[in-house]
Amino acid sequence: MTGLKKYRKQIQIAILSVVLIIGLYTIGSSLFAEKDSFPQAGEKAPDFTLRGLDGELHQLSDYHGQAVLLNFWGTFCPPCVDETPLLQQYYEQYKDQGLVILGVNLNESTVTVQGFVRQFSVTYPILLDKEQVRKQYGVNQFPTTFFISPDGMIVEKWIGELREHHLKPRVERLVPRKDDTA
Amino acid sequence: MIENTKCECGHQNAVGTILCEYCGKPLHDEDSDLPLEMRYDGVARRSQRSSKSIIDRVWRFFSSVKVAVYLIVITLVLAILGTIFPQENMLININYAEYYKKNYGVIGQIYHFLGLSHTYETWWFRGLLFMIGTSLVICSLDRVLPLYRALSNQAVKKHPKFISRQKVTLERELPAEPSKWIDQFGQALKKKRYRVVQEDDALLAEKNRFSRWGPYVNHIGLIIFLLAALMRLIIPGWQYEQYVPILEGDTVKIEGTPYYLKNEQFTIEFHEPDAEGNVVPRLFRTQAVLYECVDNCDGVDEPVLEVVKEHAIEVNSPLEHDGLAFYQYNYNYTPIIRSMEVKLEHVETGEVYGTFPLRTNDPEAMYEVGPYEIELRHYLPDFTYENGEPATKSKNPNAPAFIFLIKGPGLPQEGNIHIYFPIPDDQIRFQQDRVNEAAGSQFRMSVGDMENVEIAMYTSYLNIKSNKGMTFIWIGSAIFIIGLVMGFYWHHRRIWVRIDDGRLLLGAHTNKNWFGLRKEVSEALKITGIEVEASSLDNGRNLT
Question: Could you give the ipTM of this predicted complex?
Answer without folding.
Answer: 0.81
